[in-house]
Amino acid sequence: MAQQPVGVGFVGAGMISDTYLEHLAQFPEVTVVAVGDIDTDRAAAQAEKHGVPVSGTPDDVLAHPDVELVVNLTIPAVHAQVSLAAIEAGKHVWSEKPIATAFADAQQLLEAAAAKGLRVGIAPDTVLGQGVQSALRAIRAGEIGQPIAAHTAMMSLGPDKWHPNPEFFFQPGAGPVLDMGPYYLTTLVNVFGSVARVSAFGLASGPTRTVVAGPRAGEEFPVLIPTHVNANLEFVAGGASSSIFSWESALPRMGVVEITGTEGTLSIPDPNMFEGPLRVYRPDAEDWEDLPTEGTVGGRGLGVLDMVRGIRSGEPHRASGEIGLHVLETMLAIEESTRTGQTIDIASRIAQPAAIPADWTPYEA
Questions:
Q1: Measured CA distances, 220 to 130, 160, 249, 259, 265 (Å)
Q2: Using CB atoms within 10 A of its CB, is residue 3 exposed (0-12), middle (13-18) or buried (19+)?
Q3: Per the count of CB atoms within 10 A, which of 23, 63, 98, 171 is most buried?
Q4: What pLDDT sits at residue 250?
Q5: pLDDT tens digit string along 3-44?
């Protein structure tokens, strides 16, 4: 007998909700039943646009009897608050990254979920797409031998060049590490496992920035976090990585993830995307060699579906709250190291999730 689709409710109807709503509508095991936002007109507009039957406030979504899982697309500063409210309402929750902006809040959320037998899933689910998953399968098949090191880079001039309201990117709880770090660090912990310790250096080129795009162009706002960070990680099981997170670079370098192994170096597709080229450079080679990428390309919402399948089957889901907590602790340790100049130990530990099989598809129940 076929199981009923899992009812999903959205809290947050901003820009990113479009892509989630578009993709979830394609998955037969999911049905979106409600959209809520503090701006109820915005919620109503998104519900009408995507054929969702109910709209209203966040509380309306949490109280809806057909909502089994809440998708939390609010701003980072209230991620933990909204997710905890969903848990208290008896709902599983999928949250955009990061899981929280304070480690204690993330711990409280996971403890509350465990006490109620509920699940927490955390973006990014880009790591569940064809690109990164093909890379993980190649690594685990021994394509580059034993992974021993990694280099990642995310470098641009920053979101103040394109976002009409960019201030929140430059406040505590955001910045290039907390905003973009989850994509790169989640990929690294999928490859190497738990982070053991962190050291980092950070700076900002100036105390203010100026809005470039939209009706507020020309307005200045304060910069309250480092906008260029170099971070070094050591992993419990061995291996190390170096990462650049920068909103100070006129030379854009996005999506650089290179894994060095004992038998070659693998260039992984951009972890902020669901697909891309996968290449290997072998000893004595003259150039990179393309490797095949297989499986579902996907889009935002894959993590929700993986959770839904886990809820129904009892199997663990891959983009878990525990990984979200570990990545958050790592990012906060990077920030602490930039402030203190000290090497910071990481206390939390994770289990590396299984790679998604190449024949896994979200489009058939």
A1: 40, 10, 20, 40, 43
A2: exposed
A3: 98
A4: 96
A5: 789 999 999 999 899 999 999 999 999 999 999 999 999 999
- The number of beta carbons lying within 10 Å of the beta carbon of residue 213 is 14
SS (H, E, C) 151-207: EEEEECCCHHHCCCCCHHHHCCCCHHHHHHHHHHHHHHHHHHCCEEEEEEEEECCCC
* Cα 163 from Cα 68, distance rounded (Å): 33
pLDDT tens profile 227-285:
999 999 999 999 999 999 999 999 999 999 999 999 999 999 999 999 999 999 999 99
Q: Which residues contact 78 (CB under 8 A, 6 or more apart)?
A: none
Which burial class, exposed, middle or buried, applies to 285 when counting CB atoms under 10 A from its CB (0-12, 13-18, 19+)?
exposed
Half-sphere exposure of residue 346, counting CA atoms within 13 Å on the CB side? Answer: 28
Whether the CB-CB separation of 73 and 101 falls below 8 Å is answered with no
Residue 117: is it exposed, middle or buried by C-beta count within 10 angstroms (0-12/13-18/19+)?
exposed
Distance CA 299, CA 79 (A): 21
Ranges under pLDDT 70 in the chain: 1-2
CA dist., res. 72 & res. 109, Å (int): 13
CA 357 to chain CA mean position, Å: 21
**How many C-beta neighbours within 10 Å does residue 48 have?**
11
- Residues contacting residue 311 through CB under 8 Å, at least 6 positions apart: 6, 68, 69, 92, 119, 317
Residue 3 has a pLDDT of 75
Angle at 161 between CA 297 and CA 201, to 5 degrees: 85
What is the rounded distance in angstroms from the CA atom of residue 40 to the CA atom of residue 328? Answer: 31
| Integer Cα distance of 175 and 143 in angstroms | 35
Domains of the chain by start residue, with CATH: 6-122 (3.40.50.720), 127-297+328-345 (3.30.360.10)
Query: Tell me, what's the pLDDT at 1?
Result: 44
* CA pair distance 30, 35, nearest whole angstrom: 14
Rounded CA gap, 269 and 279, in Å?
9
CA 210 from centroid of its chain's CA atoms: 27
